[in-house]
Amino acid sequence: MRQEPFSGEFREGMPFLGGSLWIDFVNTTPVIKGVTLDLIGDASALAAWAKQANIAPHQSGAPEDPAALHELRTELADAFDLLAASKPLSADLIATINHLIEHSAIRRRLADAGATTTLDEHVELAGPPVASAVAWDFAQFLGDYDHQRLRHCDNPACTMQFYDVGKNNRRRWCTMSLCGNRDKVAQYRGRKAARRPD
């Protein structure tokens, strides 16, 4: 079962600004006005997030294990910091990822496109849809990443993380529309207050 891809930093109010699916998965516990939300806290929330993440249900019908998903999220949050610091991943996380992707594979086939024939690649995931998709994305990410591009948002009140894919590697904010704009407003107000006569 396939679905049309969604795009944008926010989809149905959920953040997708990490630059990689596994980071977006880690970002499913945003802090809004000091309160931590869980965007995958129940089955309907998880289904809504999965749809916006372009994760289609598998034909296998393997169910998600909520406790295992939350444990995976915690382990990947720790992995983010380990990778950013160029430190080795835990053996437990590696075993978890290997277990989730062991039956998944890239399937290739020739496709006739009229005058040309192309090689199509399709990832065939097995197991629980969200856990498998996130694990596959994480494994693929490890093949080609720069640890200096893994960052936490510069806003100390923000919990969002991201992988900077910009050419200059100077991204500071989870998104300019929220944290970046707040910083600009705060700086403007600070300059305005400094110019006021006593």
How would you sum up this structure, described in words?
- With 198 residues, the protein is an alpha+beta fold.
- 40% of the residues lie in helices and 16% in strands.
- The chain contains six helices and eight strands; from the N terminus they run ββαββαααββαββα.
- The protein has helices spanning 21-26, 43-52, 66-84, 91-101, 129-142, 176-195; strands spanning 10-11, 14-15, 31-32, 35-36, 105-113, 116-124, 150-152, 161-163.
- The strands form four sheets. A two-stranded antiparallel sheet has the order 1-2. Strands 3-4 form a two-stranded antiparallel ribbon.
- A hairpin with an 8-residue loop joins strand 7 (150-152) and strand 8.
- Helix 4 (91-101) crosses helix 5 (129-142).
- The longest helix is centred in the C-terminal third of the chain and has 20 residues, at 176-195.
- The radius of gyration is 20 Å and the shape is globular.
- It starts with 9 loop residues before the first strand and ends with a helix.
